[in-house]
Design goal:
By secondary structure, this protein is mainly α. Helix content is 66%, strand content 3%. It is built from 10 helices and 2 strands. It has helices spanning 12-26, 38-45, 49-61, 94-118, 121-139, 145-158, 162-171, 178-187, 194-209, 213-240; strands spanning 65-68, 72-75. It has a two-stranded antiparallel sheet with strand order 1-2. Helix 1 (12-26) packs across helix 3, helix 4 runs antiparallel to helix 10 and helix 8 crosses helix 10 (213-240). It is elongated and about 55 Å long. 32% of the residues are buried.
């Protein structure tokens, strides 16, 4: 095993994930092999049991390992494909945040178009419920990141193509951190508040309800491109200090 003194990224669990997934893809770990115990991993990487368990949970979610209660954790397969794992630690840099939005622009624009073509009554109900939750959180002055994410997730599910939702679930609510936009807007009136975001959401939902794929695609793209610019603008008050 590698030296326990090597440096890790700021997100410790992702450092453990990266190291173990590399050993599964490249070696020496192979299908059926048992991973080191939690105590051994803690000792090697100098991390807590909580960090180790989070890392193992991520590897299990990626389908690379499987835990057997009372026995241990085993490698599932010898796939050399790198699992899709996103480091969503709260101190993400601006470049990383913008890269996530760029991914979402391509992904969710097409998901919205498919949702307009394929949505059914249950999908519309779920989307409407998520939009109402966003509106309610906004009216109460609450953090809208989670209901914002849920709305996007329901739209991706309405595409009835499971990979769209799977990728968005891997990104998680951290990919739509609306809270910092509100804080920035309070210092800079040039930054749109949740009112503008709500309007953009309504346009997407209306296009899906009307089964207008082109309009849904365009509305989603406009919303996410605007979100990218809002993310950039949110840095300006901090840099000006």
């Amino acid at each position: 095993m590698q030296s326990p003194h090597r440096s890790l990224p700021r997100n410790l669990s992702m450092g453990v994930v990266d190291a173990l997934s590399h050993r599964i893809r490249i070696g020496p770990l192979r299908a059926g092999d048992k991973l080191p115990t939690e105590a051994e991993i803690m000792s090697e990487f100098g991390v807590s049991r909580t960090v180790v368990r989070e890392a193992l949970s991520r590897l299990q979610a990626a389908g690379m390992v499987r835990s057997r209660r009372g026995v241990g954790t085993f490698v599932v397969g010898a796939s050399r494909a790198k699992p899709f794992l996103v480091d969503s630690s709260p101190d993400d840099s601006l470049p990383q945040a913008l890269a996530l939005i760029e991914l979402r622009i391509g992904l969710e624009s097409e998901a919205a178009a498919l949702a307009a073509q394929r949505r059914d009554g249950a999908d519309l109900e779920a989307i409407a419920g998520a939009l109402n939750a966003f509106r309610s959180a906004m009216a109460q002055g609450m953090d809208t990141a989670v209901p914002d994410f849920q709305l996007h997730l329901e739209i991706s599910r309405a595409a009835h193509s499971p990979h769209y939702a799977a990728v968005l679930e891997a990104l998680g609510p951290a990919c739509v951190p609306t809270a910092f936009l509100e804080a920035a807007a309070g210092e800079d009136p040039g930054i749109a508040t949740s009112d503008q975001v709500l309007l953009e959401h309504r346009r997407i939902v209306d296009a899906i309800a009307q089964q207008d794929a082109d309009a849904a695609r365009a509305a989603m793209r406009t919303h996410l491109v605007n979100g990218r610019e809002r993310r950039r603008a949110s840095e300006l008050p901090q840099r000006a200090r």
